[in-house]
């Protein structure tokens, strides 16, 4: 039977300064700004989408940048690290590149046979780059990052929880995930078990709850093919006692949301229709795009948003 959920769709974080946010993810990391819109639930705030050339599901890291937001705190009930996939021999390049721009990294670590580094963005958002040879996706670069070292998309995400049993049941019985293995107290799950679908659970029984603000993940979204498969997922979850929202139209996909038992906000988002529905592929992310219901207030909304621009030439 064809799985309804096939991996990670996107991960959304809360950020601080909008320009610093764009500079870090496009300038330093080399991701493409594929959409510049508003937070549909808080229209006075930007919603940035960063990803590969087209913003394909499994590559898109998104942010809500709240100017002046205080720093959040990592803790239980959160996605504490977002992991991106890079080519096998790229970590030395990335260590030097990050150092060049004042970003401290961990030493090289090894996990489930792959090497990785950890670091934080300007808001203390936890990021990992995991080098591997299992990812056949093509990376993206504005040119300042050599394509042979560019980020290919997500590798996976780490959930920090006080207990794993109920979350594990959700993933493996209702979301098409399977248990892959355990290493040093880290429990790994995947759909196909490849970069782009990995979810790790780390247990922190006595850890304090995370505080959600700048530098923390707001939610993790899992991908499903279309509206029909999304409704099937919704029905399965509701039948098994999860409090799932109605389907919400996010223009570039539709979404349902619910809290997993450990407290992390989960979303299930459709692969369709994608980011090219309101901009040409060659010009993704150049203009502020608004949902139809917000267009009558465009002038007022644009006045409330701090102007931002791409500065990738400053990060060569």
UniProtKB/TrEMBL annotation:
Q: What is this protein called?
A: Glyoxalase family protein
Q: Do you know which PANTHER family this protein is assigned to? A: RING-CLEAVING DIOXYGENASE MHQE-RELATED
Q: Give the Pfam families listed for this entry.
A: Glyoxalase
Q: Which InterPro entries match?
A: Extradiol_RC_dioxygenase (IPR052537), Glyas_Bleomycin-R_OHBP_Dase (IPR029068), Glyas_Fos-R_dOase_dom (IPR004360), VOC_core (IPR037523)
Q: Where is the VOC domain?
A: 7-132, 146-271
Species of origin reads: Algoriphagus locisalis
The highest taxon in the source lineage is: Bacteria
